[in-house]
Design brief:
- This is Cdc25 phosphatase Ibp1.
- By secondary structure, the protein is an alpha/beta fold.
- The chain has one domain: Rhodanese-like domain (Oxidized Rhodanese, domain 1, 3-Layer(aba) Sandwich).
- The chain is built from four helices and seven strands.
- A five-stranded parallel β-sheet has the order 1-6-5-2-4. Strands 3-7 form a two-stranded antiparallel sheet.
- Strand 5, helix 3 and strand 6 form a beta-alpha-beta unit.
- Helix 2 crosses helix 3.
- The longest helix is centred in the middle third of the chain and has 17 residues.
- The chain is globular and about 45 Å long.
- The relative contact order is 0.23.
């Protein structure tokens, strides 16, 4: 089952100076070329076609991060599929994990509406939530 997080709830985390990306939360942007046209502050880019190969290393590197949020442009296909692949990889890892492994408690969410909704919601009101925005880079329609 896919669990979603709203843009407003994610923005609260990103804005919170006591919360650190890659420590308190991890945002995984699975878009391809359009990532260079802007992305959520503090996110990492792992294109959807690489998730299968990189899920285990992401889980290992960020195992202590309590919340992982995946998204693509609209979070309709690539974002939810990447979250599912990651979650399945984590579940496979947990079969042999020791009790107390932080992966047991890690939440995996998908950003509702994806980056396009985030951009529409925040680009004019809170541009600091968007890094490297470039309006000339083609993206999926809102």
């Amino acid at each position: 089952m896919t669990t979603y997080i709203s843009g407003d709830d994610l923005a609260k985390l990103v804005r919170d100076p006591s919360k650190k990306p890659k420590v308190d939360y991890l945002i995984v942007d699975v878009r391809d070329e359009d990532y260079r046209g802007g992305h959520i502050k503090g996110s990492i880019n792992v294109p959807a076609h690489e998730i299968q190969q990189k899920a285990r290393s992401i889980a290992e590197e960020y195992k202590a991060v309590p919340l992982i949020v995946f998204h693509c442009a609209l979070s309709q296909v690539r974002g939810p599929k990447s979250a599912r692949i990651y979650r399945e990889t984590v579940e496979d890892t947990l079969v042999t994990a020791k009790s107390g492994d932080p992966l047991f408690d890690q939440q995996v969410n998908v950003l509702r509406g994806g980056f396009n909704s985030w951009l529409y919601r925040f680009k004019d009101t809170e541009p600091g939530l968007i890094t490297a925005y470039d309006a000339t880079v083609p993206r999926d329609d809102f």
